[in-house]
Amino acid sequence: MSGIDAISGLSGVPASALSALQQSSAASSSASAASASTSGSGSFATALTGAVDAVQGTQETANTLAVQAVTGNLDDIADATVAATRAQVTMELASTVRNKAVDAFNQIMNMQA
Amino acid sequence: MADAIGIAGTGLTVHRKWLDAISDNIANINTAEPMSGSAFQARYVAVQAGPGTSGVYVSGAAYGSATGRVTYDPENPVADADGYVRMPDIDLGSQMGALIMAQRGYQANAAVVDRAQDAYQAALKIGSNG
C-alpha cells in the first residue's frame, strides 16, 4: 500500500525535475538579458546580489544542519545532505552566471579595430 | 523553490519515519502486556500527498489492535490469575515486507536527489565549452 505511494510519488518527479530545470535556466537567461538591456540602474548587480544572498542562505542552512547532524541533534541525516546538495547546486548556478557576465565583459574590453 | 531535490527530501523523511515505525513494531513484537491493560499496538504511518508537486508528508499514525492476541502463558510475570497475557497483534512477515518497501523507497528517493543534481549540473554546463 505504502510501497505504491512511494512509486507514484516517484513517477511525478521527472516532470517537476524538468520544470525546475526550466525555471533555473529561465532565471539565468533573464539575469543575463537584464544585464544586456539596462545600463546604470544596477539591474544585473541587483540580480547577482540576490543570487549571492540566496547562496549564503542555503549555505547557512546546510552548515546549521551539518552541525546538528554531527552533534546528534538531527533526526533526519538526509536533511543535512539534501541541504548540502542544494547549497552546492545554487552555488554553481550563481558562479556560472557570474562567469558568463565576466566573459561578456572581457570580450567587450578586448574589442579593437 | 519546490525543486526535485526538495521533493525527494520529503520522500526521504516519510520513508525514514516509516522505517522508524517498523523498527518499533519489530522491537516490540514479543512485548507482553497484562490482561488489565491494552496490548502493544503496531504503529502504521499514514501519508498524504502535498499540494501541487510539493512531495509527500506524514499525515498521522494508525494503530493496530489494542486487544492483541490473548495468549496462555502462565510462566509470564504479567500473566493474570488464569495465566493469560496480551501479545501484540503484529505479523512479522508483513512487517519484514514493509521493511523492504520502506528501505527501497528510501533508496529510490536518495537516487532522485543524485539524478536531480546531475541534471542541474548538466544544465549549468550548457554552452560552457563553446
Description:
The complex is a heterodimer of chains A (113) and B (130). Chain A is mainly alpha-helical and 113 residues long. Chain A has one domain. Chain A has four helices and no strands. The two termini of chain B are 30 Å apart. The mean pLDDT of chain B is 93. Classes of the chains: A mainly alpha (113), B alpha+beta (130). Chains A and B meet through helix 1, helix 2 and helix 4 of A and helix 1, strand 2 and helix 2 of B.
Attribute tags:
heterodimer, A: 113 residues, mainly alpha, disordered N terminus, B: 130 residues, elongated
Topology overview:
The complex is a heterodimer of chains A (113) and B (130).
Chain A: H1 2-11, H2 13-37, H3 43-70, H4 77-109
Helix pairs in contact in A: 2-3, 2-4, 3-4
Chain B: H1 4-27, E1 33-34, E2 43-49, E3 56-63, E4 69-72, E5 84-87, H2 92-124
Give a concise summary.
Chain A has 113 residues and is mainly alpha-helical. Chain A has helices at residues 2-11, 13-37, 43-70, 77-109. Residues 1-38 of chain A have low confidence and may be disordered.
